[in-house]
Design goal:
The chain is α/β, with parallel strands linked by helices. The chain contains eight helices and four strands. Helix content is 44%, strand content 14%.
């Protein structure tokens, strides 16, 4: 008979199954021996581990709380669900149709529901991401997705890096206030 090692204690005695002979203890047996021989409920740590490993929050567990990174293997839907489970704000901006800096900033302003004046340039965007939001009250945290940042002549590598630097500065701002801010981006 094949027996899983986790079903036996160190001495080879069954701890998960119950048998009538092991349930009957001698009069001189200690209470510890009686407890070891009695049937034990199946452990719930496996169920808890499986529940922890599954689900959308598992996607964010491996990600630092304050970071700007490529979206890579993450799916937007999973990030949105994980943000909801963690009680954090989920903010999404699709920049896939944008070709220029002003169109990218407008797409971000629309996605974040900022007034258009607040995202006319990178300085105003940073102010909107930090001070404006901070003044509105305590924040539970943020999961931000910038999808489809353009790779065009009018929005070149330098402009993309400047935009990501704005978001890195925002992440530092929220880290100083001990608020989680995870930003994911992708290029078109």
């Amino acid at each position: 008979m094949m027996t899983n090692i986790s079903e036996n204690n160190l001495y080879g005695q069954s701890v998960l199954g119950s048998s009538s002979s092991s349930a009957t203890a001698t009069a001189g047996a200690s209470s510890a021996a009686t407890q070891a021989a009695s049937p034990k409920p199946t452990s719930t740590w496996r169920a808890a581990l499986a529940a922890r490993e599954a689900g959308p929050t598992a996607a964010l567990r491996a990600v630092r709380t304050n970071i700007v990174q490529s979206i890579r293997a993450f799916r937007t839907d999973d990030l949105m669900e994980a943000a909801g489970e963690l009680g954090q704000h989920f903010i999404y901006a699709s920049c896939s149709h944008a070709l220029t800096k002003s169109e990218v900033l407008e797409a971000i302003a629309n996605g974040f529901h900022f007034p258009r004046q607040q995202a006319k340039n990178f300085d105003n965007l940073l102010d909107s991401l930090t001070t404006l939001v901070d003044r509105s009250g305590p924040q539970p945290g943020f999961v931000i997705v910038l999808e489809g940042l353009p790779c065009t002549h009018k929005f070149d590598k330098e402009a993309r890096e400047t935009l990501l630097d704005v978001f890195r500065d925002a992440v530092e701002f929220w880290a100083d206030r001990r608020v989680s801010c995870r930003i994911f981006y992708s290029f078109a």
